[in-house]
From TrEMBL:
<dbReference type="InterPro" id="IPR036388">
    <property type="entry name" value="WH-like_DNA-bd_sf"/>
</dbReference>
<dbReference type="InterPro" id="IPR036390">
    <property type="entry name" value="WH_DNA-bd_sf"/>
</dbReference>
<keyword id="KW-0805">Transcription regulation</keyword>
<dbReference type="Pfam" id="PF00126">
    <property type="entry name" value="HTH_1"/>
</dbReference>
<keyword id="KW-0804">Transcription</keyword>
<feature type="domain" description="HTH lysR-type">
    <location>
        <begin position="1"/>
        <end position="58"/>
    </location>
</feature>
<dbReference type="InterPro" id="IPR000847">
    <property type="entry name" value="LysR_HTH_N"/>
</dbReference>
<comment type="similarity">
    <text>Belongs to the LysR transcriptional regulatory family.</text>
</comment>
<protein>
    <submittedName>
        <fullName>LysR family transcriptional regulator</fullName>
    </submittedName>
</protein>
Length: 73
């Protein structure tokens, strides 16, 4: 993972929406979805739950967000 991935996780946690996160990070929605899938492959775990109300973190994803926020300080 790189610094952009940590920012991606924190922004997703704030927005709970792929489209809004992509807009904030100035990347395309397909590129963001691709990176999310690669992160899940890298960690061999489902990091997000997607539903009609938005995107939410699994316990594993929540752990990564907390780690990302801690490293940002």
């Amino acid at each position: 993972m790189n610094e952009k991935d940590w920012l991606l996780l924190v922004t997703l946690n704030e927005e709970h929406n792929i489209t809004k996160t992509a807009e904030r990070l100035f990347i395309s929605q397909p590129a963001l979805s691709y990176r999310i899938n690669k992160l899940e492959e890298e960690f061999k775990s489902k990091l997000f739950i997607r539903n009609r109300k938005g995107l939410y973190f699994t316990p594993q994803g929540d752990f990564l967000v907390k780690f990302a926020k801690k490293n940002d300080e």
